[in-house]
Specification:
The chain has 346 residues and is an alpha/beta fold. The chain contains seven helices and 17 strands. The protein has two domains: 236 residues, 3-Layer(aba) Sandwich (QueA-like), CATH 3.40.1780.10; 83 residues, Thrombin, subunit H, CATH 2.40.10. Strands 2-1-17-16-14-3-12-13-15 form a nine-stranded mixed sheet. Strands 5-6-7-10-9-8 form a six-stranded antiparallel β-barrel. Strands 4-11 form a two-stranded parallel sheet. β5 and β6 form a beta hairpin.
C-alpha cells in the first residue's frame, strides 16, 4: 500500500490556529460508514446521535506544559520540548529526553537557562533528534513547569504566544476530564467536550469510560516510508482499568473518542472483542485492512494527510468514504487539525 494514496490537498487557511470560542460549539460532521451519507451539525448536539446504554470511551491523559523557552550561555534562544522523564537523582534533579530547536550548534555540556532560576545541562544525545537534559530548578520541577512551561502546541499552529495566549492554550489544549499527567500532545477529539455536554450524555444513560494513553513523540513523527506497511509506531504507555473494561464488555455500542482511545481499546481486546484490564505499552499501527475488534463508532478530528491518524480513520470507515468526507469538509470550510472541528463516524 503506497503512502501517496493517502494524500490530499489542504488550503493553509483551513488549519485552525485558535480553538473555537466555546468548546462545544465546534462543527461536527456525521458520516455513515455503511452508506457514505454525511450530515453537518455542531458538537453540542452529540447526545442526539447516541443511545441509552452506549459507552463513550475517553482518554483522560493530561497534557503537561512540556514546551520551555531558554537561553544558552551565548545568549541565543533555544526551545525545549520535553518527551519523557527518564530518572531523577538524589538531589531531585530530573533528567528528561527532549527535542531541541535549533539544535544545529548544540553540544553535550551545553547549559541552558530558564525563567524561575532554573538551569539545565545537556548530558548526552540519544538519537539524531533527541537529547537527554538534566534540570536543576530552585523549586519542585512540576511546579516550575506549571509556572513557566507552555502548552506543547503542534508545529502547524504558527502564532506568537504572549502571556495571555499561554494561559488560554494551557486551558484549551486540555480536555475538561484530563486527570493523569503525562502527554506531550493533546488527545484532540476530546477538546470539544464541555461539562454541560458530559452532563447531558450521562443524564441520557450514556456511560463515560476513561482510559489513559500518554500521547508521546510518535504523534509528531511523519510516516517516512513509501509503503505504509513498513512504518513502525513508537511505543506509548496506556492503562485500562477494570471498571472501564466491564463497561466496554457490557456495552451494545462502543464509541471511541479519538485515535488514542481507539488504540487502547484495540490493544486490550482479544480476538473475540473482549477487553481486559491492562497496564502496558502499545505500538499498534492501524491502517486499511485492519479488523476492528471492539470499536463501533469513532469521534475524531480532521487529520494531516499521509499521517498514521489519517490512515486509522481510513481503516475504520474506508478510504473512499473518508476522502469524500474530507473534500466536503474543505468545501464547507471546516477547521482542520488540533484546534479544528470534528467528525463522528457511525
Amino acid at each position: 500500500m503506497r503512502l501517496e494514496d493517502f494524500d490530499y490537498p489542504l488550503p493553509e487557511e483551513s488549519i485552525a490556529q485558535h480553538p473555537c470560542r466555546m468548546r462545544d460549539h465546534a462543527r461536527m460532521m456525521i458520516v455513515n460508514r455503511t452508506t457514505g451519507d454525511v450530515i453537518h451539525d455542531v458538537f453540542s448536539n452529540l447526545p442526539d446521535y447516541l443511545k441509552k446504554g452506549d459507552t463513550l470511551v475517553v482518554n483522560d491523559s493530561k497534557v503537561i506544559s512540556a514546551r520551555l523557552i531558554g537561553k544558552k550561555e551565548t545568549g541565543g534562544f533555544i526551545e525545549v520540548l520535553l518527551l519523557s522523564k527518564k530518572y531523577e537523582d538524589t538531589l531531585h534533579c530530573p533528567t528528561w529526553e527532549a527535542l531541541l530547536r535549533p539544535a544545529r550548534r548544540v553540544r553535550t555540556g551545553t547549559r541552558i537557562f530558564f525563567e524561575g532560576n532554573c538551569e539545565a545541562i545537556i548530558t548526552s544525545r540519544t538519537s539524531d533528534k533527541k537529547w537527554l537534559i538534566t534540570f536543576m530548578a530552585k523549586t519542585e520541577f512540576n511546579h516550575f513547569l506549571n509556572q513557566f512551561g507552555h502548552a506543547p502546541l503542534p508545529p502547524y499552529i504558527k502564532r506568537k504566544q504572549d502571556d495571555t495566549g499561554r494561559d488560554n492554550d494551557i486551558d484549551r489544549y486540555q480536555t475538561v476530564y484530563a486527570r493523569m499527567p503525562g502527554s506531550v500532545a493533546a488527545p484532540t477529539a476530546g477538546l470539544h467536550f464541555s461539562h454541560h455536554v458530559l452532563g447531558v450524555l450521562e443524564g441520557n444513560g450514556i456511560h463515560i469510560a476513561p482510559v489513559t494513553l500518554h500521547v508521546g513523540y510518535g504523534t509528531f513523527l511523519p510516516i517516512a516510508t513509501d509503503h505504509v506497511e513498513k512504518h513502525r509506531m513508537e511505543e506509548e504507555v496506556f492503562e485500562i482499568g477494570k471498571d472501564t473494561a466491564d463497561m466496554i464488555n457490557n456495552a451494545h455500542h462502543v464509541i471511541a473518542v479519538g485515535t488514542t482511545s481507539t488504540r487502547v481499546i484495540e490493544s486490550a481486546a482479544d480476538g473475540k472483542g473482549k477487553v481486559k484490564p491492562l497496564s502496558s505499552h502499545t505500538d499498534l499501527f492501524i491502517y486499511p485492512g485492519y479488523h476492528f475488534k471492539r470499536v463501533n463508532s469513532l469521534l475524531t478530528n480532521f487529520h494531516l494527510p499521509r499521517s498514521s491518524l489519517f490512515l486509522l480513520v481510513c481503516a475504520f470507515a474506508g478510504k473512499d468514504i473518508i476522502q469524500k468526507a474530507y473534500r466536503q469538509a474543505i468545501d464547507n470550510r471546516y477547521r482542520f487539525y488540533s484546534y479544528g472541528d470534528c467528525m463522528l463516524i457511525l
